[in-house]
Amino acid sequence: MALKRSLGEKLFDASNVFLLFLLSCTTLYPFFYVLMASVSDPNWIVKTRGLILWPEGVTFEAYLMVFRNPSIYTGYVNSTFIVVIGTSLNILMTSLGAYALSRQNVMWKNPIMFGIVFTMFFNGGLIPTFLLVNDLGLMNSRWALILPVAMSSYNLIIMRTAFMGVPVSLEESAKLDGANDFTVLFRIVLPLSMPVVAVMILFYGVAHWNSWFNALIYIRARDLYPLQLILREILIINSTESMMSGVGGLDKMPVGETIKYATIIVATLPILCLYPMLQKYFVKGIMIGAIKG
């Protein structure tokens, strides 16, 4: 039988719902503003100040100009390569390290773990990292954006904690049947830890997709620019001229403003489409990696 809730409890729940609704609106409105501005009349956008709740003079000219820009396609290809290959390497390296450090009979496990945690507080810095990447011959290569960040210490700790929650009896029975450590990892431990693996894919994938600083440091050829670096040029350096070739009868300044908004939407949309597919694993994976072991 359900307990009768007091008036104070109902008011508390209503207040929570109201505050969370306000927080959601505060979080979602910037994206909504950019979306509405990207499909509105450019001259109206320049004159408008304050909130935008609906588009005015709906036009998709800004999106047409964005997709006519070959740099956008090149950026998509480069970013997709970095995300797919980089995230795959991240999951492989993190899984191998987490599995080794989660086993009970590993020699010097605690000192190794201390060394990994130490790197979260102290690192070599930008200049030594740049010199290392240069000496390895990775400059002006997409691998310069993948190999130096092949594993995150924080994600390794989360995955290690999740692996420690897998019963040791499963590993022992598998080894009695002749399985080696790679078989145990890829056939038993990883399938039982799919929520935390999904969280790692989300963490690493979003980090790769949003990364622009490493590309700014290591990449010189424009045909290797990831999408976020092209977006930075458009937003900060204001390089929209190449997209507005052939625009007649329009003031280029307001058209350039809507191009910026459209480019933000184009660059953000893939991650927004990816997140709902992994969202159901997110809370479960974080909790498993945070409290077990």
Automatic annotation (TrEMBL):
Q: Which cellular components does GO assign to this protein?
A: plasma membrane
**Ranges where the ABC transmembrane type-1 domain occurs:** 76-276
**Where does the chain cross the membrane?**
12-32, 76-100, 112-131, 143-163, 184-206, 259-278
GO biological process terms held by the UniProt record? transmembrane transport
Superkingdom of this entry's organism?
Bacteria
Tell me the compartments it is located in.
Cell membrane
Query: Quick check: keyword Transmembrane in the entry?
Result: yes
Keyword tags: Cell membrane, Membrane, Transmembrane, Transmembrane helix, Transport
InterPro entries named among the record's database cross-references: MetI-like (IPR000515), MetI-like_sf (IPR035906)
Answer yes or no on keyword Membrane. yes
Which ranges of the sequence are coiled-coil? none
Task: Tell me the leader sequence span.
Answer: none
- Topological category with respect to the lipid bilayer: Multi-pass membrane protein
**PANTHER family from the UniProt entry:** ABC TRANSPORTER PERMEASE PROTEIN MG189-RELATED-RELATED, POLYGALACTURONAN_RHAMNOGALACTURONAN TRANSPORT SYSTEM PERMEASE PROTEIN YTCP
Q: Which family does it belong to?
A: Belongs to the binding-protein-dependent transport system permease family.
Q: Could you identify this protein by its name?
A: Carbohydrate ABC transporter permease
Q: Which organism is it from?
A: Paenibacillus agaridevorans
